[in-house]
């Protein structure tokens, strides 16, 4: 049994009645069986966990003003203009479709130009608007519409999208979705996935429920054919496999879907940000010296991600690959990222580099050019591991579109 209205086992029906009684003090007339079963399914019909989840959700809705956020909240221009994504059309069963060209998103630029609270509010507004669309569809079609589909386009997605503060915001948004909008995702089509997709998925996978993971479909090169199996072509933009365009013929349907783009620095609120990570190492690099940080990469396909700032002065850095075991001078190592000096005392420095092979990498802070000043650096450097083939089988589903 699916655990949905009209498809309940005897035990599930009994648990539903007990659940309704347990939470009767917080229920409103709009909270029908469809609503209650969402929370039961989300916690495998565990009454205690389902009740805690629902009570936390209703308290959260009151705190963020979710019921009236679409009327009350005015977002900064940078978010409405550059935060990629939009509602566009419905699938063949009437469920709303969200198109998300994440590869075109400049989250770093948005994070420098808007408060995190506003970024999170914008995503709450997206989902709340989707729920209103579902309610309208339910009335129009004469049946319950309670799920949504996502086309997640990763064209243009690269290492810059693994900027740690941006990833932290994205993960916080995912946690919010999982806690407060369970059983809402119907299907997520991932298209144009780059080779670093396993790295990105590895970061967010611990946040996702098993139900969500099972609904992620990573499509192959003929993804258009697979998407159109579930969505009529006149419902989605021409660029994403459909036939829909704006009145001016724009294939992206920009009137519906924001396609993102680089945020102009004129929007930036500040030039200097504090590092987001709590796991910082603080070191003093003496004048005329270097500080090597060794990193063990166990398999090809990993990435090294770094973030640091200095307290008062600039610093140089480079990344090397050790070509032989034991002690080795950096001059004898293979250069992965060439030496550069950065004003990390003014703006924190961050970056990510793909590791094409396993072995020992050395992130080297360089103060050898300074014979008068020592430098204090606060940093976090980490290795991001990709999904292994066996782990992938327990996560998203890869499809070739021909099944």
From TrEMBL:
Q: Where is the GOLD domain?
A: 256-383
Q: Which InterPro entries match?
A: CRAL-TRIO_dom, CRAL-TRIO_dom_sf, CRAL/TRIO_N_dom, CRAL/TRIO_N_dom_sf, GOLD_dom, GOLD_dom_sf, SEC14/CRAL-TRIO_domain
Q: Name one Pfam family in it.
A: CRAL_TRIO_N
> Which residues does the UniProt record annotate as the domain CRAL-TRIO?
75-248
| GO terms under cellular component | cytoplasm
- Database matches in SMART domains: CRAL_TRIO_N, SEC14
PROSITE patterns (UniProt xref): CRAL_TRIO, GOLD
Q: What is this protein's record name?
A: SEC14-like protein 2
